[in-house]
Amino acid sequence: MKKFIIMVLFVGLPILIYLMTIDNKIYYVALGDSLAAGQNSYGKIAYGYADYIADDLRTKNKLELYTKDFAVSGHRTTDLINDINNNKKALINEERITIKQALTKADLVTISIGANDLFYKMGLTGFDITYYNETDLKKYVDEIILDIEKLIVLTKKYCKEDIILIGYYNPLWSMKKSYAADLEATFIYANEKMLEITKKHDIYYVDIHKTFNQGSDLLPNPLDIHPSSAGYVAIGKKIMDIINTKILNSN
After folding, report:
1. Which CATH number belongs to the domain containing residue 158 in this structure?
2. Residue 84: which of 66, 69, 104, 99 has the closest Cα?
3. Over the range 194-206, which residues count as b (16 or more CB within 10 Å of their CB) and which as e?
4. Element (DSSP H or E) covering residue 143
5. The domain containing residue 132 runs over which residues?
6. Quick check: is 22 in a domain?
7. pTM of this prediction?
8. Is residue 106 helix, strand or coil?
9. Is 9 domain-assigned?
10. At what angle are helices 115-122 and 134-158 packed, to 10 degrees?
11. Domain count, the chain
C-alpha cells in the first residue's frame, strides 16, 4: 500500500503542479484592425501593442499562448463580427484553430476596432476629408457603437474571461491640423460612447486619446495614421496597467 501511495504521489504530483501552473497562465487573443495587427507608420506589419503585452506576460511567466493572427489591417467592426460568425481559422503554433475555439480558451481578449468605420464615415480617403458635419458625425458614431456593442455581445458568448476594449486617438494631428481640430470633438464623443458600453457589458476600457495629443511624436509619418514603435509601447503600457491591477492581482 505504501508503495502504491508513493507511486501515485510520484506520478500525480507533477501533473497537479503542472495543472495549477498552467491555470495561472494567460491565453491571450488580440482581435481587431491594423492597430491590433501592429501595422507601423510605413505600412508594414511589425511589433504592435499586443506583442509588447505578450512579451510582458512572458517575462512574468504568465503567458500560456498568444496570437494576433485574427487581427486584420483594414478590418471594420462588421468584418470582425463576420469572422466570428463564420468561425475563421488560423494556423497557430502549427495547429489550425478557429476563432471560436481561441475565444473559448482565451483568458484575455483585447479589441481595437471601429476606427476604419469612423474614417469611412468622415469621408477620409487618401489624405483628404471630402465631407463632414458634426451633427451627422455624432449620428454615425452612434451607428458604429451599435455594431461594436453587437461585437462585444458576440465575443462574450464565447469568451467568459477578461475583455479589454481600446478607444480611439485622433490620428490627424500629424497629417492636417485643421482637420484634426475640427474632428477632435467627434473622437472625444466616440470615446465617451465606448466607455459607456464597456461599463454596460462589464468589460475593461483603455483610453488612449490623450496619449496621442496634438504635436505627439508618436505619429511620426505625416502621410500615415499609425503609431511608431514608441506609440505601440505607450498603448501596451496602458493596457498592462489594467492587466496588472485588475486581472493578475485577482488571480
Report:
1. 3.40.50.1110
2. 99
3. beebbeeeebbbb
4. helix 134-158
5. 27-250
6. no
7. 0.88
8. coil
9. no
10. 160
11. 1
